[in-house]
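Hi V.,

You were right to ask for the full record rather than a summary. Here it is.
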Amino acid sequence: MLSLEGGGWTAVLLPEQGGALAQLGFHGREVLAPLPLGADPNASFGGAFLMAPWANRLDGGLLPVAGIAYHLPVNRPEDGTAIHGLAREHPWQVLAASASRAMLVQELDATALGLPLRYAARLEVMLGPLHAHITLSLTNAGDLPFPFGLGWHPFFARPAGTRLRFRADTLFARDARSLPVAAQPSPGVDGDEAAYAGLDTHFAGWDGLAEISRPDLLLRLQATGAWSRNLQVFAPAGGDVLCVEPVSHVPDAPNRPGFAAHGSLTMLPPGDALVARLALAAEI
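Predicted structure:
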C-alpha cells in the first residue's frame, strides 16, 4: 500500500494489485467507495482500477489488426468477452513517490498470448490544493503499429440524494451483454437516481466534464487527452456506487467499425504514446 496526502485529499494506491486505488477521500469524506482491506480490486465494487490496453469489452476476445484476427483471453465467460484490459491483472512498480505524488510504471509483453503487443505504461497520481490529478500514458514498446485504448474505472460513493450531470451527444443502446448495438442522439444525463440507475451505458460526444452532487460533497471531473470524448456510466439499480468512467473508445470498437467515428482504438506506431488526464475537484 502507498498512502498519499495533500490539499485536503487522501489516497491509497495498490501498486502490486494492478495499480488500483483502494481509497480516495477529501477532508474526511470518502470520494470512492473504499475497497475493503485485502479485497480484490478487480472483483469488488470499491476503489478504482485502470483499464489498458483496451477498455470495457471485446466480444469473444477478438481483436482484428491489419487483417489478422488476434484472440485475447475471455475473462468474463458469462458473456463471452475479454473485459477491461490487461494492466489491472499485473503489478506496477513505484518509480517515484513523495507525500502527495506517486509515479507508477508497468511494462507488459503479451507475446506469450500470441499478440505482437508490448507496452510501457505510466501512471501519475498527484494530490494538490485545487485538484486530484490522474494521468495515464501508454507507449507502444513493440516493433509494429498496434491499436491501444485506456480507461479509468472508479466506484464513486453514491449516498441517497446523489445527482449526476454531464453533456454528450450520443448514447449507445446495448444488448444483454452490454455490447453497443445502436447509436442514438442523447443530451447526456442530468438528474437523480431516476436518471441513471440501471445504466451500464456508453456515451460519446462527451465534452469531458461531469459533476457528481452528493448531500455532503460536490465533485467535478474534467478529462482531457484520450479521455475527453467518451464516457461509460455504470450504476447498479439499488446500489450504492456510481461508476463514471472516462475511456478512450467505444466498447468492442475493433469489431464494430460502424461506430469508429464515435471513438476507436488508437493505432500507435512504435514509440508513440496515448495520454489521458483527469482532474477531480471537490467542494464541501
